[in-house]
Amino acid sequence: MLTKDTTQLAKLAATLRARIIETSSKTGTPHLGSCLSCVDILTALYFSVLRIDTSNPQAPERDRCILSKGHGAMGLFHVLAERGFYPMTDLDSYGEDGGVFAEHPPTPAHLAGIEAATGSLGHGLPLGLGMALASRIQGPSYNVYAVLGDGECNEGSVWEAAMLAAAQKLANVCVIIDFNKWQATGRSREIMALDPLAEKWRAFGWNAVEVDGHNFDELLAALAHFPHANSQPTAIIAHTVKGKGASFMEDNNNWHYRIPSADEVVKAQIELGLAP
Amino acid sequence: MRNAFAEEMTRLAATDKRVVVLSGDIGNKLFDKLKVVDEKRFYNCGIAEANMMGVAAGMAMSGLRPFVYTITPFTTTRCFEQIRVDVCYHHAPVVIVGTGSGLSYSELGPTHHSLEDIAILRTLPGMRVLAPCDASELRQTLHEVLKDDSPTYIRIGKKGEADVHPSLPDLKLGKVLVIRPGTDVALLCAGNMMADTLKAADLLAASGISAEVVSFHTVKPLDADYLQQAAARFKLLVTVEEHSRIGGFGSAVAEWRMAQLLRVAQLGFGTEDVFMHEVGTQAYARKKYGLTADNIAATTLAALRA
């Protein structure tokens, strides 16, 4: 399904959230809160924006999307399956020894649809810059998207990359920050001086816009303004809620590591309008 | 070696459109000719090596062949995690070039010494580790690394290294170059200690010892065929490197020996497990660590006569 219809996108996101919560429960995969906060961002990208061909995942002209906050992999794996990069049934082996589906994305050689193996934070944007420069050097023309966490913005390499992207006028690079206000052990704006986040990106020479990261109208509108004609790279600061979709998980950082029980899965599914 | 690198990269960039050079804010004017070839294929990535390594990996994953160039500690230990994850985990064909390696920048102090780079980089799966001994070997090496898709680390000196080879050698990665055949002992050198290794062989000759001198320009993968036959021909293998004795070329040879049922002995020359807190030239530093022709010859002679 590819659509600009925000009602359809919201429905799809709810379905994906329910699947992600169920996978976390069944397989004991953590980082559930972090996965749920970026579901709408990934849904907007993969079902409305990215120029990709699931039958030719390495097509040279494809847009590149890197989930730099690699601990959101459980969300990405479901998105890629739904998008058609591999059958949904492949996820039945989630977490099994010898498989590829666990806590972080494997390398592109090991799973269709993956652009970069992430998990160590602060790597996705530099890799994306390299891909964007490659487009400039040798063509063809494509866009590069990197989805970062707010905690990830602690990493110096993010700001090294931000400076180089602006210096090189890499207008074909778009960063989307999943700004869920938490990192592993506390509030992201308290652990490091993160605020004002949009101002920081502007000061580094980027176009920066703030949106509600769970509102598809706002997400699609911001993505439609990229690439910007002013030759600057674009940063979309998406204000999100960690654990979005299940009221008892929302903005509760215990769900960085907690695994839902079977009862909690049902409770979440009911809230998502997907009662079994 | 530095000038040879810039010259050869300019040639390669002219013939191979995949070649891109990334510099960490060094080599002002060194790459001017390269920029004339194609300004879109030279990037000064600033003093931001972690990002530079990731950028190189992203380029390599997109079909380009980036060469990352800066002073050795900054292109190795400074951004080791990017090398490990972005380059090696993705098996991205990035060529990492560390200039001024070993004690080349002795006077600049331990921040600019690199005596651990071989040790840490050869632990990475799929990483090829090269240490050409002179400008000729470096030139050949740069051509050879483009023939496959392996991530590669090349450690080079600074400038003024003696030319060992009178002409371009027939260098094949993973295969040693025997600089001088011998019959009594093998002096195996990785990198910029070759001139002193040859002098040590001269000194040994004066004592009636015929030393074979070998350039191990490829530290990983080691030339096991050569080692196998050397172990059969010699009772003693001597390794020489301007690098810590912990984890370097000598250690790599020792690891090879561990996997064999051979009785060949080994003597290793390299730096000690200490930082150099006093100021000194490269010659001073080498003497401090016993990396001189005199010491190599005398210690080898004593070992052979023991």
What would the keywords be for this entry?
heterodimer; A: 276 residues; alpha/beta; Rossmann fold; five-stranded parallel beta sheet; two-stranded antiparallel sheet; 10 helices; 39% helix; B: 306 residues; 2 domains; seven-stranded mixed beta sheet; 20% strand; globular
What does this structure look like?
By secondary structure, chain A is α/β, with parallel strands linked by helices. Chain A is built from ten helices and seven strands. Chain A has a single domain (6-271), classed as Thiamin diphosphate (ThDP)-binding fold, Pyr/PP domains (Rossmann fold, 3-Layer(aba) Sandwich), CATH 3.40.50.970. In chain A, strand 6 (207-212), helix 9 (216-224) and strand 7 form a beta-alpha-beta unit. In chain A, helix 1 (6-27) packs across helix 3 (39-49) and helix 3 (39-49) crosses helix 9 (216-224). The longest helix of chain A is centred in the first third of the chain and has 22 residues, at 6-27. The model of chain A has no long low-confidence stretch (mean pLDDT 97). With 306 residues, chain B is an alpha/beta fold. Helices cover 37% and strands 20% of the residues of chain B. In chain B, the strands form two sheets. Chain B has a seven-stranded mixed beta sheet, with helices on both faces. In chain B, helix 7 (135-144) links the parallel strand 5 (128-130) and strand 6. The mean pLDDT of chain B is 96.
